[in-house]
Design a protein that fits this description.
The chain is an alpha+beta fold and about 70 residues long. It has three helices and two strands; from the N terminus they run H-E-H-E-H. Helices cover about 40% and strands about 15% of the residues.
Length: about 70
């Protein structure tokens, strides 16, 4: 996420927002200082792992990501 923020900042956006469904509070604070707006729906304490907060957290194959990106580009 930090690499994406740095990359996007080089383009001088008018407003840079990051939205995540769940993250540890220290991560949210670190991100908040680097963007114009941060939305984080849940900051559980203690935080164990992102996957714990999803009903279905199966990995997505690279081929599926490529297909979805290509579909979106059309």
């Amino acid at each position: 996420m930090l690499a994406a923020i740095r990359s996007l900042r080089r383009g001088d956006p008018a407003h840079l927002m990051v939205a995540v469904p769940v993250a540890p509070q220290p991560t949210c604070e670190a991100l908040r200082n680097r963007v114009d707006e941060l939305i984080c729906l849940l900051t559980p304490d203690p935080f164990f792992a992102v996957g714990v907060y999803y009903v279905d957290f199966r990995p997505i194959a690279d081929e599926e990501v490529k297909r979805l990106l290509a579909e979106r580009a059309r």
